[in-house]
Structure formats: structure tokens, C-alpha cells
Write a structure and sequence with these properties.
Blueprint: E1 2-8, H1 12-24, E2 28-31, E3 34-38, H2 41-50, E4 61-66, H3 69-74, H4 86-90
Antiparallel strand pairs: 1-3, 1-4, 2-3
Length: 94
């Protein structure tokens, strides 16, 4: 299922490790603190259990947001760049 991960991690070392962790799951960076990609439900559960190790202070947070087919169709990206979320159109939810 298409999954959006957004985070606010204050410590650089934890944030850098989180970025590598998310990339290992095949997620693509769409913003400085945002990743998007297709993750099966089992892997999302495993990821959710492991992801807490990147939280270092009380103010840190990580959101794991599964997106249904309807959410995917309604998603829009507004930007002055010519880049669009082309991968959003290519990702198939099974």
C-alpha cells in the first residue's frame, strides 16, 4: 500500500540513520522530511516496530500514513518546479 512517512527528528545522526532506513524499504524522498513508497502491510508493521529507535528526544516524531486508492487519486502536488510526483501515478496498490 502506498505509504507516506513524515518526520521531525532533531538529532542529525538519528535523522541520517532514519533516512537510510527508509531508503532500505524502497521509499523515495519527496521532501526533506518526507518519504513515499509502496510497502506491503507486513513490512509496514515491522517498520513501525523498528522505527522508534530513531527518536532521541521528546519533541521528535515520525508519522506512518498508509494511503488508500481514493487518497492516492485525490493527492496533488503543488510546486513551481516542473517536477511532479510521477511515481504517484506509477505506483499500483494491490
Amino acid at each position: 500500500m502506498l505509504t507516506l512517512i513524515i518526520y521531525d527528528i532533531s538529532e542529525d545522526s538519528y535523522r541520517n540513520k532514519l533516512v537510510k532506513f527508509l531508503q532500505e524499504y524502497g521509499l523515495k524522498r519527496i521532501q526533506y522530511s518526507g518519504f513515499l513508497g509502496d510497502i506491503n502491510p507486513h513490512d509496514r508493521i515491522v517498520m513501525a516496530k523498528e522505527i522508534g529507535k530513531f527518536i532521541s528526544t521528546k519533541g521528535d516524531s515520525i508519522y506512518i500514513i498508509p494511503l488508500c486508492n481514493r487518497c492516492k487519486r485525490l493527492a496533488k502536488m503543488i510546486s513551481k518546479d516542473d517536477n511532479e510526483l510521477e511515481d504517484l501515478e506509477k505506483i499500483k496498490i494491490i
